[in-house]
């Protein structure tokens, strides 16, 4: 039983990587089986369809995102510094982003083009980030604007990831991250917008 569970986890891990590097549509059962080193028959014992694997991959991404956000929450007492941790993802994961783009954005874009029914579940990873970022801004006193600020940070990360993938320019990424840190400092210093401007 433990071996069966381990094989399933290996399949999901390999599929996760291949979906990211090659795209969901262009990743075959055979490629995943080869990456894990198992027969097609053993593969079908765990997953009957590629959509079944996709569902498992999305669930793993949701779990790992929740765990990462919980770690940030635990390790950093200042919500502004937690936001900075998120902003830094485009540097932390810079090599992969340059080669393959943002794993969340690329999958949701592909599933949208395919009109795939799993797209809303894939978007749930963005929802986790949005909710978490909104909570950080609420803790910083920006209760009314918190969601707008969260979406601004998400838009920044997606834009930088897309252009990093297009141009492979590390200096651009660092420059944009520095600019967002400056924006965040200025926004926090200015405080919430007056009610008449909300």
State the order of secondary-structure elements, H for helix, E for strand. HHHHHHHHHHH
How many individual domains?
A: 2
**Form type:** elongated
User: Are there runs of 5+ residues with pLDDT below 50, and where?
Assistant: none
Oligomer: single chain
- Put simply, the count of helices is 11
3D architecture notes:
The protein is mostly helical. It folds into 2 domains: 1-48, Orthogonal Bundle (Arc Repressor Mutant, subunit A), CATH 1.10.10.60; 56-191, Tetracycline Repressor, domain 2. The chain has helices at residues 2-22, 29-36, 40-46, 50-75, 79-87, 89-92, 94-100, 103-113, 119-139, 146-167, 170-190. α8 packs across α9, α9 crosses α10 and α10 (146-167) packs antiparallel against α11 (170-190). The longest helix is centred in the N-terminal third of the chain and has 26 residues, at 50-75. It starts with a helix and ends in an 8-residue tail after the last helix.
């Amino acid at each position: 039983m433990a071996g069966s569970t381990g094989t399933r986890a290996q399949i999901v891990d390999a599929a996760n990587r291949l979906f990211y590097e090659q795209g969901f549509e262009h990743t075959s059962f055979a490629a995943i089986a080869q990456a894990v080193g198992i027969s097609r028959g053993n593969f079908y014992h765990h997953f009957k369809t590629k959509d079944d694997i996709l569902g498992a991959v999305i669930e793993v991404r949701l779990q790992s995102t929740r765990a990462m956000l919980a770690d940030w929450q635990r390790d950093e007492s200042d919500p502004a510094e937690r936001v900075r941790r998120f902003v830094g993802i485009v540097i932390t994961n810079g090599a992969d982003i340059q080669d393959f783009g943002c794993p969340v954005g690329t999958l949701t874009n592909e599933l949208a083009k395919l009109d795939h029914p799993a797209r809303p579940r894939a978007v749930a990873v963005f929802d986790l980030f949005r909710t978490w970022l909104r909570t950080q801004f609420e803790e910083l006193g920006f209760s009314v604007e918190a969601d707008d600020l969260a979406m601004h940070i998400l838009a920044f990360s997606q834009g930088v990831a897309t252009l990093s993938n297009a141009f492979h320019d590390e200096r651009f990424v660092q420059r944009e991250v520095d600019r967002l840190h400056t924006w965040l400092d200025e926004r926090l210093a200015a405080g919430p917008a007056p009610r008449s401007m909300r």
